Amino acid sequence: MLKSIINLKDAQIISMSEQKTIMGGTPVQPAECSCFCWDRSTHQKVTAYCFAYCPDGSVPGIEEGSSGKCGPVVNPKPEI
User: Fold this and answer.
1) Is the backbone of residue 17 left (phi > 0), alpha (psi -120 to 50) or beta?
2) Residue ranges per domain, the chain?
3) For 20-39, what is the mean pLDDT?
4) Closest CA to 66 of 79, 47, 80, 53
């Protein structure tokens, strides 16, 4: 599915401010940051948003191989 999305005809890369508009103004996590939560009902890891608590209230873990640089992205040249 990812290849289908990447190869869409006339697809465009959108700016951080556009991503924040789509995501409701929440911080956009960096691409090299990947987090997870444990689903206690299935005992499996599930992908999670790094800037929010897991459904059970715990803090998400950082996936192995992730850079760990999961702080909010600071745009050095904010759009006006």
Assistant:
1) alpha
2) 36-66
3) 73
4) 47
Sign of CA dihedral 73, 9, 22, 63: negative
Nearest to 32 by CA among 65, 6, 3, 76: 65
Mean pLDDT of 11-31: 68
Handedness of CA 66, 71, 77, 80 (dihedral sign): positive
Bridge partners of 44, per DSSP, are: 39
Quote the CA–CA distance of 58 and 80 in Å, as a whole number: 37
- 3 phi/psi in degrees, rounded to 5: -60, -35
Tell me the β-bridge partners of 38: 45
- Copy the structure tokens of residue 30: 């960096």
